[in-house]
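User: I'm preparing a small set of examples for a lab meeting where we compare how different chains pack in three dimensions. I only have the primary sequence for this one, and I'd like the structure in token form so I can line it up with the others. Please keep the answer compact; I'll paste it straight into my notes.
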Amino acid sequence: MAVLLEKRGAALWITINRPEKRNAMNGDVIAGIAQGYRDAHDDAAIRVIVLTGAGDKAFCAGADLQNTGAAFAADFSRPNVDFADLLRLSQAATKPAIARVNGTCMAGGMGLLCMTDMAVAAETAVFGLPEVKVGVFPMQVLSLLQTIAPRRLVNEWCITGEPFDAHAARAAGLLNHVVPAAELDARIDWLIGRITDKSPTAIRRGKYAMRAIASMSFDEAIAYTESQIALLAMTEDAREGLKAFAEKRKPVWPGK
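Assistant: Understood. Below is the structure token output for the 256-residue chain.
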């Protein structure tokens, strides 16, 4: 299986399972990750998605270049391509996703990193956009990367193709946490715990709203969000949260 899907408590783990190929992406990998996102949203018990790679060498090294023609082949009768559709799916998601960056994260792997909401990396992980070295450019990755990292750094990464380390990635805003490799899973578990004890309804509606206002002016965004907070206050989760606060107890979220 190119991608392994595993439920671990309230998390669905999506693991690219091609360690011998540095977890490089092919059609099966893209389809498997997309299926994981759909499965997570179809299962009310799943609260968070964890995206990672098998082994300890690579998160994802980008497109599988062994079959060079296939890596960038396209059906020109279709206006969309599968990797772009995966990025679209990730941005429409209403359940949070965490990238567990266990090793090398290059090229299209950077797109997978950027499509998640949060990221934790081993301090040994290496990042980069080396597409210019093979005559192409990280086009689809840019659609997400340019909203996360500073423009000057994005320019340097894309134009030089030179790699950078996990601490530089964190300083640029690509990562939330950098930890020793041995502590990676503990930090992921900690982050999952900080998500799953919160209101699923608030997170669901909040993620939807964050995406909606991303391209709005301030006046549009404030008008939209003032209506959204009124709607959110009418949910069962909001009622339970306020009741639990008043009663000095932990809320039991109905998720509605």
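A couple of notes for your slides: The beta strands are 3-8, 11-16, 48-53, 58-60, 97-101, 104-106, 118-122, 126-128, 164-165, 177-179. The chain is about 45% helix and 15% strand.

User: Perfect, thanks.
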